[in-house]
Specification:
alpha+beta, 2 domains, about 10% strand, transmembrane helix, ABC-2 family transporter protein, membrane
């Protein structure tokens, strides 16, 4: 039975494997190019020491600008590819029988429905998870100097999605969605569209609730030290300003009278602002958030796969 499933799904599995191999090669080349360029500019410290400020003008800025967009591209590509692996291997897993009306023939053979469903799931899900694991491990190594150069924490969006247990949870969700929809719908296109939309909805909900799952931290910066940006060890959520008595000052009321050439910090002091307050999800919450959101993904996936199993037993 396993060999039969492999023969039917080998095109999808080989496509997924090819995408993983090409992406691994891109990641390795990107890191080697970054290290080579940094060595040529004499800025190798920018890739290993987060305390180094390589965003100012000069050769450090040249390194920063040269690899900003390649870094963004690699992040978005990995973010999209991981769930795509689950969709690729599961899109036609059950849809072929439901679409072509051959489910009755397949399910009246000597193999039980439970074994037919289990073998299909295991033969395709395990390679998809293995591919996601390979991408996660290679990305952790390849993107490390990029994250140091661009001062991006693992808990920030796109950093969070590429590390830890979430890539495995992401591919599990997309796979489960495609497998479930494949047993309920009779159109491959509908399965693909439904899986993409469903995954995006689940991802968006988890992303926008990430700030509220665990208590946030607050950092107060005296206005004399405020440079207009949040330099916190985590994922910024909100920023507020406070007056002499600790009262909250609305963002729309701050800096209204500041001139274009005036020092922003000095202007805010003149307006009576005493401090800028940053609320953020600290980097120390990375693993708790990973485990919580991955746990949610596992529960959702279990429900979807259960739905697929129940439906598969009634096909034909």
């Amino acid at each position: 039975m396993t060999w039969l499933v492999w023969r039917r799904q080998r095109g999808a599995l080989l496509l997924a494997a090819a995408l993983v191999v090409v992406t691994v090669a891109l990641l390795v080349v990107a890191r080697l190019l970054l290290e080579s360029r940094a060595a040529g500019l004499g800025d190798s410290a920018c890739l290993v020491d987060p305390a180094q400020d390589c965003t100012g003008w000069g050769r450090g800025r040249e390194l920063y600008d040269s690899f900003l967009w390649p870094h963004r591209f690699l992040q978005f590509w990995l973010w999209a590819l991981v769930p795509l692996l689950g969709l690729i291997v599961a899109a036609a897993l059950f849809t072929r029988e439901t679409e072509e009306g051959t489910a009755g023939f397949v399910l009246t053979q000597s193999v039980s429905r439970a074994r037919w469903w289990t073998t299909n799931i295991a033969t395709t899900l395990l390679p998809a998870l293995a591919g996601a694991l390979v991408l996660t491990l290679v990305a952790r190594w390849a993107l490390a100097p990029f994250e140091t150069l661009f001062r991006q924490g693992r808990i920030e969006p796109l950093g969070f999605e590429l590390h830890g247990t979430w890539p495995l949870a992401s591919v599990l969700i997309s796979f489960s969605l495609a497998a479930a929809l494949g047993t309920w719908l009779r159109s491959s296109l509908a399965v693909v569209v439904g899986t993409v939309l469903g995954w995006l909805v689940i991802f968006a909900v988890l992303l926008y609730t990430r700030y509220d799952i665990l208590p946030t931290s607050v950092q107060v910066v005296p206005i004399g030290e405020f440079d207009g940006t949040a330099d916190v060890d985590g994922m910024p959520r909100d920023m507020a300003f406070r007056g002499p008595a600790g009262e909250m000052i609305g963002s729309g009321q701050v800096g209204v009278g500041c001139g274009p050439q005036e020092n922003y910090s000095a202007c805010l002091q003149r307006e009576g602002v005493t401090a800028a307050e940053f609320e953020y999800q600290p980097e120390s919450n990375f693993w708790p958030l990973q485990l919580i959101q991955s746990g949610v993904a596992i529960i959702l996936s279990a429900a979807l796969l259960s739905s697929s199993y129940v439906r598969a037993r009634r096909l034909g």
